[in-house]
Amino acid sequence: MGHSESDIKKLFPEATVKSGLAVTGSYTSNAGASVKKWLSENGLL
Predict the structure, then answer these.
(1) Number of folded domains in the chain?
(2) In the Cβ-directed half-sphere of 6, how many Cα atoms lie within 13 Å?
(3) Which residues contact 35 (CB under 8 A, 6 or more apart)?
(4) Residue span of the structural domain in which 24 resides
(5) H-helix segments, 1-45
(6) What pLDDT, on the 0 to 100 scale, is given for residue 37?
(7) Which of 17-23's residues contact partners 24+ apart within 8 Å by CB, and which partners?
(8) 36 touches 27 (CB < 8 A)
(9) What pTM was computed for the model?
(10) How far apart, in whole angstroms, are the C-alpha atoms of residue 31 and residue 21?
(11) What is the signed CA dihedral for 29, 17, 15, 12, rounded to 10 degrees?
């Protein structure tokens, strides 16, 4: 994910920035369980 999270925190210091989910291109078709877990852990599911 590079510097995305830290860049967003710098640009929008009042925002709540949660941890992202990095999924590489070759693994996207098998990422369903990881995505569901990430969504659940972040209160989005």
Answers:
(1) 1
(2) 3
(3) 21, 23
(4) 4-41
(5) 4-11, 32-41
(6) 95
(7) 18/42
(8) no
(9) 0.64
(10) 10
(11) -80
Instruction: Scan for tokens 């995305």, then name that residue.
Output: 4
**Residue for token pair 């860049």:** 7
Residue 33: per-residue pLDDT: 93
State both tokens at 43. 């209160």
Name the DSSP letter for residue 44: -
Count the Cβ atoms, other than its own, within 10 Å of residue 15.
9
Q: Which of 36, 42, 38 is nearest to 16 (CA)?
A: 42
Rounded mean pLDDT for each run of 10 residues along the chain, 45 residues in total: 88 92 86 94 90
CA-closest candidate to residue 7, choices 21, 28, 15: 15
pLDDT reported for residue 38: 94
